[in-house]
Design a protein that fits this description.
- The longest helix is centred in the first third of the chain and has 18 residues.
- Strand 5 and strand 6 form a beta hairpin.
- This protein is globular.
- Helix content is 45%, strand content 23%.
- The protein has a single domain, classed as Trna Endonuclease, Chain: A, domain 1 (3-Layer(aba) Sandwich).
- Helix 2 packs across helix 6.
- The chain is built from 7 helices and 7 strands.
- Strands 1-2-3-5-6 form a 5-stranded mixed sheet. A two-stranded antiparallel ribbon has the order 4-7.
- By secondary structure, the protein is α+β, with helices and mostly antiparallel strands.
Length: 176
């Protein structure tokens, strides 16, 4: 990605957030991550407006459970809650759990951290840079790249995509 594309993405996300509440922004990002996962080949099984985990998806006989958060501006720390970690804990060898954070700084990027790197860090307040160091760099990069394509190709229509619309389309397998 070029810096002008990073800046454009940052501006699109900032403008969307300014037009809606922070809570609604978080829900929409959750829905947009589900559509990003569809672009990566996932089938979305669940997207929860309340409860844990936020998203359950499947690819190649592996089930992924994800908790989704948004770091607005340069929120330097995140607290890892027990409920979030418990929600993504794999129950068998065919499950993976990830804590997914969209860092809305410049450049915006997804940070996906495997459960195994967080299970001992419950209730810790961790700097974003520490979370990045714990992340699955390849999956984070793939999500960031597809998220960029998704946002840039739907920039004009983005304000129309409510959480409900995003959720329904994702559960039906109808990607954006």
């Amino acid at each position: 990605m070029k810096w002008d594309e990073y800046y454009k993405m940052h501006t699109i996300l900032h403008n969307l957030r300014e037009d809606i509440s922070d809570g609604d922004f978080g829900f929409r990002i959750q829905g947009l991550l589900a559509h990003t996962l569809i672009r990566l080949g996932f089938k979305i099984l669940e997207i929860k407006p309340q409860g844990h985990p936020d998203i359950i998806g499947e690819i190649e006989n592996l089930r992924f459970k994800l908790e989704v958060e948004v770091a607005l501006g340069r929120a330097s720390k995140r607290i890892i809650n027990k409920e979030d970690i418990d929600a993504i804990k794999p129950q068998n060898i065919n499950e993976k759990g990830y804590f997914a954070i969209l860092d809305c700084g410049l450049p915006p990027e997804w940070i996906l951290i495997d459960y195994k790197h967080l299970k001992w860090r419950i209730s810790e307040s961790l700097f974003i840079i520490v979370l990045k160091s714990l992340s699955d760099r390849e999956l984070s990069k793939r999500c960031t790249t597809q998220f960029f394509h998704l946002i840039l190709s739907n920039a004009e229509r983005l304000p129309q995509f409510t959480f409900s619309i995003l959720r329904i389309k994702a559960l039906e397998g109808e990607g954006l």
